[in-house]
Amino acid sequence: MLHFIGLGLADEKDVTVRGLEIIKRAERVYLEAYTAVLLVDKETLEAFYGRSVIIADREMVESSSDDILADADKVDVAFLVVGDPFGATTHTDLVLRARELNIPTNTVPNASILTGVGCTGLQLYNFGQTISMVFFTDNWRPASWYDKILENDAIGLHTLVLLDIKVKEPNLEALARGKIIYEPPRFMTVAQCAQQMIEIEEEKGNGICGKDALAVGVARVGAPDQTIVAGTLEQLSQSDLGKPLHSLVLIGKNTHDLERDYLRAYAVDPQTFDDAWAKKNERK
Amino acid sequence: MLHFIGLGLADEKDVTVRGLEIIKRAERVYLEAYTAVLLVDKETLEAFYGRSVIIADREMVESSSDDILADADKVDVAFLVVGDPFGATTHTDLVLRARELNIPTNTVPNASILTGVGCTGLQLYNFGQTISMVFFTDNWRPASWYDKILENDAIGLHTLVLLDIKVKEPNLEALARGKIIYEPPRFMTVAQCAQQMIEIEEEKGNGICGKDALAVGVARVGAPDQTIVAGTLEQLSQSDLGKPLHSLVLIGKNTHDLERDYLRAYAVDPQTFDDAWAKKNERK
Question: Where does S-adenosyl-L-methionine bind (chains A, B) (predicted)?
Answer without folding.
Answer: 9, 84, 87, 112-113, 163, 221, 246
